[in-house]
Amino acid sequence: MSRQEAAITLEEALERLQLLETQINQLQATISDIESRMNRLSSVEDALINLKDGSSDVLVPLEPTATVIVRGEIKPLDKVIIHAGLNVFIEVNRERALEILREERANLSKLLNVYNQELSKIVQYYNALKAAVEQSLATAQQQSTRQTQ
């Protein structure tokens, strides 16, 4: 700890702990979202690979929670329509769609590594600050006990 950090009051340290807890929770939620997105991309990639030649009997969810599913047929996948961002969809061949999915997953993986590193640093700082606060409280309690005796 630097001298400036060592000179903070107990109240300031407790406030920092609360802020750090908030940051940790936000980072964990973001990391979870990225991991979910990566898993969805992997599932889509697997589906594009497995459905290359089409399928005569598939179940298609009509909304994200799959409470309504219809039977369908998928023709051989020469072209697919993929979301390009900003509510723009483009038609590309299957191989290009797979490349786009893999690129997005690679970018998310890099971002995930950055967030995990940041989380690790914040957790380390949080634990060090928490230990210092606990030590300070224990010392204050010991001094208080000595004065009352």
Report on the structure:
- The chain has a domain at 3-52 and 93-143.
- The protein has three helices and four strands.
- It has helices at 3-6, 10-50, 94-148; strands at 55-61, 69-74, 79-85, 88-93.
- The strands form two sheets. Strands 1-2 form a two-stranded antiparallel ribbon.
- Strand 1 and strand 2 (69-74) form a beta hairpin.
- The longest helix is centred in the C-terminal third of the chain and has 55 residues, at 94-148.
- The protein starts with a helix and ends with a helix.
- Oligomeric grouping of the chains: single chain
Binned strand content: 15-25%
Instruction: Let me know the average pLDDT.
Output: 91
In angstroms, what is the radius of gyration? Answer: 26 Å
Give the biggest sheet.
2 strands, antiparallel
Spatial sequence of strands, sheet with the most strands: 1-2
Order of helices and strands: HHEEEEH
User: What's the end-to-end separation, in Å?
Assistant: 34 Å
Shape: elongated
Low-pLDDT residue intervals, each spanning 5 or more residues: none
Approximately how much helix is present in the residues? Answer: 55-70%
Compute the number of strand runs: 4
Q: Which structural class matches the secondary elements? A: alpha+beta
Total count of helical runs of at least 4 residues: 3
